Amino acid sequence: MTDKDLEIMTVGGGCFWCVEAVFNELKGVHKVESGYMGGTVPGTPTYREVCSGLTGHAEVVQVSFDPAIISYEDLLVVFMTSHDPTTLNRQGADVGTQYRSVIFYTDVEQKNIAELVVEEIAPYYENPIVTEISPAEKFHKAEEVHQGYYANNQTAGYCSAVITPKLTKLRKMHADKLKNVNV
Fold first, then answer.
1. Can you give the pTM of this predicted structure?
2. pLDDT tens across 126-174, in order?
3. Among 15, 18, 51, 159, which one carries the catalytic annotation?
4. CA distance 111 to 41
5. What's the structural domain count of the chain?
6. How far is residue 93 from each of residues 46, 61, 104, 179, measured CA to CA in Å?
7. 183 in a structural domain
8. What is the C-alpha to C-alpha distance for residues 64 and 7, in angstroms, rounded to an integer?
9. Domain containing 139: what range?
C-alpha cells in the first residue's frame, strides 16, 4: 500500500476531537488529522483564531483511507450518523460557524456521492439536514496538541462526557466497519 493508493476525505461535524476519534476506529483509515478549512482569512489560522468564529474556518478532519477497504460513501454514512447534521453551526454545547456540519469534496464524484448520502439519510431525521457541501480548500493542520486528542486524553472531562458516548454509538451502529471489533 502506497500513499498514492489512498484517497482523502475532509469533513467537519463540530469539535474535531470528536470526529477524529470516530474515524480513527474504522478499518481502511490510515491517518486522521485535525485541522481547519473553509475560511476567508489569509495565512495559517490558529486554534484560538478559529474558535473566535471570525476566520470563517470550520474545525475539520482530513482522513486518508484505502478505498479498497472502506468506501467514501461508507465513510460519509458513518460521519452523518456520528453527529447531528440538522443543527446549524452547532454540535451540543459547541456553537459557531467553526462547528458547522460540512463535507468538503475534492472532485465531482465526491460531490455527487455526498449529495446522494445526504439525500438517503435525510428521512431518518426529524429536522432537515443542514450539512454544507462545498469544494475543498486549503487544509491547515491544527497544532500538535489537537492531534490524537482523545487517544491522549480519554479521562479528561470533555472526552468522557462527549466523545466516549459518540464512540459507544459508533460501535453499536457500525461494528462491521471497526478496526478492532472486540472493543
1. 0.94
2. 999 999 999 999 999 999 999 999 999 999 999 999 999 999 999 999 9
3. 15
4. 25
5. 1
6. 21, 19, 23, 30
7. no
8. 6
9. 3-177
